[in-house]
Amino acid sequence: MLPDAVASSPDRLARFEREAKAVASLNHPNIVTLHSIEEVAGTRFLTMELVEGRDLSTWSRPAGLPLAQVLDLAIPLADALVAAHEKGIVHRT
After folding, report:
1. Which stretch of DSSP H or E encloses residue 43?
2. What per-residue confidence (pLDDT) applies to 62?
3. CA 47/CA 38 separation, integer angstroms
4. For residues 59, 65, 68 and 71, what is the CA-based torsion angle, rounded to 10 degrees?
């Protein structure tokens, strides 16, 4: 769901919609499929595929993760980032 502060700003709303459309154009096994941008009763939100699995926060530990687990996460993440970059879609803050 899009926070009111973003939805009420025409510039921020336009950026949100551009980025959502860019993500929707990606087709990669490590990038969630974005189906649509919706609005119901004035609330804007995205619909996307449901991905079963563990929440990333369940992986975190105060002492960090073993290297094997870091690589299990980082390699697919890097692969997805490369795919987005090759399409010209890289999120910048």
Report:
1. strand 43-48
2. 84
3. 7
4. 70
Which amino acid makes up residue 73? L
pLDDT in tens, 35-91: 998 989 888 889 999 999 888 788 777 888 899 988 998 999 999 999 998 888 875
Provide the residue type at 80 as one letter. Answer: A
Can you give the pTM of this predicted structure? 0.71
Tokens of 66: 């073993």
Q: Which residues, in sequence order, are bridge partners of residue 1?
A: none
Cα maximum dimension of the chain = 47
Sequence-separated (6 or more) residues with CB below 8 Å from residue 25: 87, 89
Residues 7, 37: Cα–Cα separation, whole Å: 12
